[in-house]
Specification:
This protein is mainly β and 662 residues long. Strands 2-8-7-4-5-6-3 form a seven-stranded mixed β-sheet, with helices on one face. Strands 37, 39, 41, 43, 45 and 46 form a six-stranded mixed β-sheet that branches. A five-stranded antiparallel β-sheet has the order 13-17-16-15-14, with no helix packed on it.
Length: 662
């Protein structure tokens, strides 16, 4: 995840990175290391069979340590699909599900995630992080490759490793074919039965000008138009096959579409479409013309934006990572929701994949980064300094500002669409969640995906992993609970505003909830008196790293991929960013600077916290010691860690991390 404290992304980027560094060559090991055994609660997609590494001898095994809340993990699932198809006879992929949130530990939630994201390989359910720890994983996602004889041959964190994995897999196939230790044939994967429902993990919904409802049927890769009551299907938009195809409603293809927004009539007439849809896994925005029944791509190239890449349009800001330009020329990253904002006549885009908010102008077909640094976390401020974490839901507040469901920080944010400035209404940080009502600074949510303004000025929240609809009242700064017992609510519509009632003149309303894991639209009547729930405030539980208080040195090693060299033409091509939660954990040494080592001082008065470390390195195609060719392809590699630390005087004063380019 970009500057993610827990998920990390190697990224393709420019040759123009500054300063000097020493080439780090790939290391080789004379001693082979046996892969640790795979231990978890249960196996999935195996036809009920329990498996061991011995059962997988003769196959190349790829472990994917993932958790379903993590957008980068979802990116990796899509990166692995071509590999599992190409090497179906030689490769066994195993998704080791290692949860972050408490909800992700439950059997039902893991079952639903494997079904929702159509995971077509084995899954080991690892709720207690036993296999995660055995393979010393520190970030979501982490990948590990095991050879046909059961030896661990490679590990890497983050996304964007498809090319490197292909090279490793083909090398192992060649080597073990020659040795006679490769078994080519069907693997142990057993596909589960496909459910038959009208909707399949729907994501978002919107009210059309006709009064009908349009639902993003994400799991069926299409959109469904219902009548005004959400009872009868009028028509389906899209073939239902995963893909990226423009055209008429019957032949058009989407890939897990998400948010939908309606344009005003005059603008719709000008641009030739009435709706903008976030086509999440295709990394595009699609325009829907309900009159001609056609779908067109209006933003995105179909390829994922990787942090720092210069094959995006570089706009008026000039510096790396700031983009604006023709929308069809700019790569996007998992747009999750969209919202038309009348004040600016732009469509605001929740760009979950790189933790930012973008703005699309239908009038001239341009798009720009509006707010966010592409670092993941909870930091308020202007558009140049704010941090988000998988922004996933949008709505318009009565004052014209934009409400943002910031899922990975379990937070609700408020954005000024004119300036990009953001403030937090509810939420504490990337690892803090729970189910607690009360004053906003003490309340806790768990991975909310939707947000909606209510007629009385309060805010309804689709508190997804708590299975609840929560309410934030900005006048009292209090959070309460409106409904519980829902199955992963992901979006909300206000479908009926009743007469004014109550001592303070609040208005009752009925809500239509997209109950994603129930494959349904569910009506929820708002109670006269909201519940007050306190099931506690939680933090993500991961093994802590023991480290000394006082002076500590952070060192990051970087392995340059074969056929590349560090791009030192403009100085040091490496960069290190360090911060902490709580901020007072660091007495000194925070901030960003060139180089891959840093001396920090840790506060002796604290017991622990989380160190957030982001490392980058730039490399170009070329041989070590040689010149970089004039038109060489160049790359920026980035990895991010959120490291829980426990302070002990006897612990090490050095923290070693590895930024892998290959």
């Amino acid at each position: 995840m970009t500057s993610s404290p827990e998920e990390s992304t190697p990224t393709a980027a420019s040759a123009g990175t500054s300063a000097t560094a020493t080439q780090t060559k790939s290391s080789t090991h004379d001693v082979k290391v046996r892969a640790p055994e795979l231990i978890g609660r249960r196996w999935m997609n195996s036809g009920g069979k329990e498996l061991t590494l011995a059962d997988l001898r003769g196959k190349v095994v790829l472990l994917d340590f993932w958790t379903f809340c993590c957008i980068n993990c979802l990116h990796v699932l899509d990166e692995l699909r071509p590999l599992e198809e190409k090497y179906a006879k030689e490769l066994v992929i195993i998704g080791v599900h290692s949860p972050k949130f408490e909800f992700e530990r439950t059997v039902e939630a893991v079952d639903q995630a494997v079904e929702r994201y159509q995971v077509e390989h084995l899954v080991l359910d690892d709720p207690d992080l036993i296999t995660w720890q055995a393979y010393t994983a520190r970030a979501w996602p982490t990948l590990a490759v095991i050879d046909p004889e059961g030896y661990l041959v490679a590990t890497m964190s983050g996304e964007g490793h498809a090319a490197g994995l292909t090279e490793i897999i083909e090398g192992l196939i060649s080597e073990h074919s020659a040795k006679g230790t490769l078994h080519s044939g069907d693997g142990p994967y057993v596909p589960p039965p496909a459910p038959e429902t009208d909707l399949f993990y729907p994501g978002k919904t919107a009210r059309l000008p006709s009064g009908h409802l349009l639902v993003a049927d994400s799991g069926h890769h299409s959109l469904v138009e219902y009548d005004a009551d959400g009872a009868a299907i009028i028509r389906r938009i899209g073939s239902g096959a995963r893909g990226w195809v423009d055209g008429d409603f019957a032949s058009a293809a989407f890939s897990e579409p998400g948010g939908i927004t309606v344009l005003p009539d005059d603008l719709a007439e000008q641009v030739g479409y009435q709706l903008v849809v976030a086509d999440t896994v295709n990394h595009t925005l699609r325009g829907i013309d309900l009159e001609t029944e056609t779908v067109t791509t209006i933003a995105g190239t179909g390829q994922q934006h990787m942090v720092g890449a210069v094959d995006n349009v570089r706009g008026k800001h000039g510096e790396l990572g700031r983009y604006d330009g023709p929308a069809r020329d700019v790569k996007l990253s998992s747009p999750w929701d969209v919202l038309f904002v009348p004040a600016t006549a732009e469509v605001v885009v929740a760009m979950a994949g790189n933790h930012t908010i973008w703005s699309f102008r239908p009038q001239d077909g341009t798009i720009r980064l509006l707010s966010g640094t592409m670092n993941e976390g909870l930091t308020d401020g202007d558009g140049e300094s704010a941090w988000y974490a998988q922004s996933s839901g949008l709505d318009l507040a009565p004052d014209g500002r934009v409400l943002v469901a910031d899922s990975e920080t379990s937070a609700i944010r408020r954005l000024d669409p004119a300036t990009g400035e953001v403030a937090t209404l509810v939420g504490v940080g990337l690892f803090d969640f729970g189910f607690r009502d009360g004053p906003a600074d003490q309340a806790r949510l768990q991975h909310p995906l939707g947000v909606r303004s209510l007629p009385d000025g309060s805010i309804a929240i689709a508190d997804t992993y708590n299975g609840a609809i929560r309410r934030f009242d900005p006048t009292t700064d209090e959070v309460t609970t409106l409904a519980r017992g829902l199955r992963e609510p992901s979006d909300i519509l206000v479908i009926d505003a009743g007469a004014t009632s109550g001592a303070e003149g609040s208005r009752e309303a009925e809500l239509l909830v997209v109950e994603s894991a129930a494959h349904a639209l569910t009506r929820v009547k708002l109670p006269k008196d909201a519940q007050k729930v306190d099931e506690g405030a939680l933090t993500t539980k991961r093994p802590s790293t023991e480290i000394a208080s006082g002076p500590v040195t952070i060192g990051v090693s970087f392995t340059v991929p074969a056929g590349q060299k560090l791009d030192d033409r403009w100085g040091d091509p490496t960069f290190l960013q360090v911060s902490a939660t709580p901020p007072e954990l660091l007495v000194s040494g925070d901030g960003g600077a060139e180089g891959l080592s840093r001396d920090i001082v840790i506060n002796r008065d604290l017991d622990g916290g989380v160190l957030h470390v982001t490392a980058r390195a730039a490399a170009c195609d070329g041989e070590p010691g040689g010149e970089i060719p004039l038109h060489a392809a160049c790359h920026l590699y980035q990895q991010d860690w959120g490291i829980p630390v426990e302070l002990k005087d006897s612990a090490p004063r050095e923290l070693h991390l590895d930024l892998r380019g290959a």
